Amino acid sequence: MDLGSVMIVGTMIPVTQILATIVFIVAALTDFLDGQIARRQHLVTNFGKFADPLADKMLVMCAFIVLVGLGSVASWIAAIIVCRELAVTGLRLIIVENDGEVVAAAWPGKIKTFFQMIAIIILLLNNALFNNLNLPVGQICLYICLFFTIYSGIEYFYKNRKVFSDSF
């Protein structure tokens, strides 16, 4: 992106949204790097397997709530995302309590997280980086993220249905 594009983006988006986007990107990158370093250094722990996804969820949920307030995301979409995140976190707690095992995220959940992060960044920037394309890239990423949010949530509960078998 050239300096002119940066200046145009800067005039189209309030400074607070630009700062929020920068903070979000830094938080997402440090979370990603932390996980990479832990795996490379063989420092993977049950606490890390639990806390890392929880930190991701809190970051994403806060961002989606902000985006609803900005009018960039429909409240029903944010509600589905937040409910799925809370439900999966609750299921993880039950599994840890019952089995002492922390279930790592599967690929659909990782894809969901990737598209959540991308959608949030683009939506915080009001799709400004893609205005020349006349394509709602942020909304497209949001709907891809919504699909994987629902799919990965269903998959997570299906794969771990044994947790509920003694409850009925």
From TrEMBL:
Q: Which reaction does it catalyse?
A: a CDP-1,2-diacyl-sn-glycerol + sn-glycerol 3-phosphate = a 1,2-diacyl-sn-glycero-3-phospho-(1'-sn-glycero-3'-phosphate) + CMP + H(+)
EC top class, as a word: transferase
Report the transmembrane regions from the record. 6-30, 58-82, 114-133, 140-158
Enzyme Commission number, as recorded = 2.7.8.5
**Family, per entry:** Belongs to the CDP-alcohol phosphatidyltransferase class-I family.
The reply to whether Nucleotidyltransferase figures as a keyword in the UniProt entry is no
UniProt protein name:
CDP-diacylglycerol--glycerol-3-phosphate 3-phosphatidyltransferase
Sorted keywords for this record are: Cell membrane, Lipid biosynthesis, Lipid metabolism, Membrane, Phospholipid biosynthesis, Phospholipid metabolism, Transferase, Transmembrane, Transmembrane helix
Citing just one GO molecular function, the answer is: CDP-diacylglycerol-glycerol-3-phosphate 3-phosphatidyltransferase activity
| Subcellular location(s) per record | Cell membrane
One GO CC annotation: plasma membrane
Q: What does it do?
A: This protein catalyzes the committed step to the synthesis of the acidic phospholipids.
Q: How does it sit in the membrane?
A: Multi-pass membrane protein
- Superkingdom of source: Bacteria
Lineage runs:
Bacteria, Bacillati, Bacillota, Bacilli, Lactobacillales
